[in-house]
Amino acid sequence: MIDVEPIIERELERMLPVPVATPDWADVEHRLARRERAGRGRGLGRFSRFALAATALGVGIAVAMVARWGGSGGFEDRALAALGSEPVLHVVAHTQSPSGGRLVDLSTGVTTPITQKMEMEIWYDQQQGLKHTISRSDGKIIDDTLETPEGSYTPGGIVYDCAWIAAHPVEATKARVSCNANGKNGTTPRVIPRPKPSIDPSLQGFLDGYQRALATGKARKTGTGEIDGRPVVWLAFDLPDRRSEEVAVDAETMRPLLVREMPGGYSYRIEQIGTESSKDSDFSKPRLAEVGAQPTAGGVISSESLALRPSSIRTALPGAVWAGSALGGLPLTSAQRDELRTSFADHARPPERGLGLRLEYGSGASGAYVLLMESNRPQFGYRWEFVRMTPSVRDLTGKLYTTSGVAIGFTVTNGLYVTINASNHDLLMLAARSLQPL
Fold first, then answer.
1. pLDDT tens string 143-174
2. Can you say whether the dihedral through the CA atoms of 216, 252, 50, 24 is positive or negative?
3. Most buried among 19, 174, 183, 196, by the most CB within 10 A?
């Protein structure tokens, strides 16, 4: 059996040779000098910010490898030429699909599915250890991160990680961050090696699976077709976690056009993929999100029980709304005035405190219930964080934003942002249509 590891390594070196130009390190040094304004570290979970870019980059590298599967030098040369031989890989990929949410016009009952376009643009310099990722939703920037050997940066400054904390224990203690369970950092700086940025852990799994497919002859051509009038060749390969992916490769340009999980999973369009010089790449300072300051954490910090009288509820929150003393046979059983705290992404705004009101009809313990949560701002503690990823959902006056899953909805009534959580969708819609000022 042919040892494909050296072959793949040589091909990657051809794709990503040592760069000859210098990225924007002046900006990195400037930002390090301002590390006292460092931003908050963030996890990489969920439809992770890098999942889309990981798939796109994996596809790009896979195209350069496909030549070994096909056994044709001409195919290999064309695939490599399509990507170029500059040091920085530049990928733009997107997915456009139903977000799972829908808007209901409360006066007419007309329901409109919400379609959302998520885009990831990434510049990746493997040799220099640089990666710049810009995430967009419906064309607006919602996230911007620069990763360097010196650390990661957001619009708010450097991201606290264990390597930075170890090197700056005193500053980390002042910032109240630590990688130790006891919260103690000491005072002596230490050096912890920081690995070079990678696209995503899933990329390594993708490459491993594809390499195994090459070595065992399991990479396979599944057919031909057309995408936007372009003839494509479909290639399929297995992933390590018992899934598989198909890649549509343009039969003429050898550029990947689409990636899809089989059967019937995610699907990503590759708008752009290729290599470019360091001087033409964007490793610049992250910019503020175009959707404005976004809440990233928050909750209720104190509560006060209220008498179940309209006058008491009315004075707790100016403009308060309710669904009457009873709703669908469920009596009003609880009223609480909340004090909430909300913090914002990248320290774009200082933490805010606000007032909220919670009204419960029925009882979750006994079965049917409706819970109203309202405030004069979209409170993270009342689950309004979805707005960050769905900038197209803005004016909800007279409308209800909901999903097909749990019975939870969001609307704006009497100038207040109202969250409705119910035991079923019928009660959810009844509550939304019954809201009225006290």
1. 888 988 888 888 777 778 888 889 889 988 88
2. positive
3. 19
